[in-house]
Specification:
Layout lengths: L1 H8 L27 H30 L5 E15 L2 E14 L5 E13 L2 E8 L2 E3 L3 E5 L2 E7 L3 H14 L1 E16 L2 E2 L6 E9 L13 E2 L1 E3 L1
Antiparallel strand pairs: 1-2, 1-11, 2-6, 2-7, 3-4, 3-5, 3-8, 8-9, 8-10, 10-12
Length: 225
């Protein structure tokens, strides 16, 4: 009886299989994929920075290749045949010959809008528009603004005294500004519009008999971008 029991204990075990011990692996913080709002925002920010850097490099390369120079503007000649003040009304007749030089070899300029304004003693008294045009490489274009008419100006007593003094001396200090809307053209590429200004401080002799007065000095204008 003891031998039978012993042989049964030494036999093979035919019970249900024992499942293996499962191990739990906790993923690290850097091992998973990022798909939250913060990750999307970070990727978008990196894309924007990359685009800005690439555009900056392109602009720098274009500038180094083209070396753009400023336009040069002069008032070549001017004729002031009428400039009379009566009861705060100014009667005027002024014509200008302006040269605009584009010194660039590879940059053309579209002048889409030109508005010329004349001032005396910080008072605007005249306004006119000029035709739009395209200016090619290393080209000089001429502008011919004409101011003629009458305008009410508020000079005050001191301004009237200055006017009479200028009249007795035979010349007037007149400021002319030309507001522009321009585009640059480099090969087939056209830029967005810019709004620079030509600013000209002029000392204009007055013709007493209605003819063109002598003594005007060719004057360089400033360019304000």
């Amino acid at each position: 009886m003891a031998e039978t029991k012993q042989s049964h204990l030494n036999g093979a075990y035919y019970g249900p299989p024992i499942p293996p011990k499962q191990s739990y692996h906790r993923p690290g913080r850097g091992s998973g994929l990022c798909c939250g709002p913060c990750c999307i925002l970070s990727a978008l920010l990196k894309l924007i920075i990359t685009i800005i850097v690439v555009l900056g490099i392109i602009v720098l390369v274009l500038w180094l290749v083209l070396r753009p120079s400023k336009v040069k503007v002069y008032v070549e000649n001017a004729s002031l045949t009428q400039f009379n003040l009566t009861d705060n009304t100014l009667y005027y007749n002024l014509t200008l010959d302006m040269s605009v030089r584009n010194p660039n070899k590879r940059v053309g300029i579209y002048y889409d809008r030109l508005e010329a304004t004349a001032y005396y003693d910080e008072n605007r008294f005249a306004y006119t528009t000029l035709p739009s045009f395209y200016q090619g490489h290393k080209n000089t274009s001429m502008l011919y603004p004409v101011f003629s008419g009458e305008s009410v100006v508020a000079l005050g007593s001191s301004g009237v005294a200055d006017f009479n003094q200028d009249k007795s001396q035979g010349s007037f200090d007149i400021f002319v500004r030309v507001n522009l809307r321009i585009r640059f053209k480099v090969g087939p590429i056209k830029t967005n519009r810019y709004k620079p200004k030509f600013e000209c401080d002029l000392k204009l002799p007055l013709s007493s008999d209605g003819s063109t007065a002598t003594g005007f000095t060719r004057t360089k204008c400033d360019i304000d971008f």
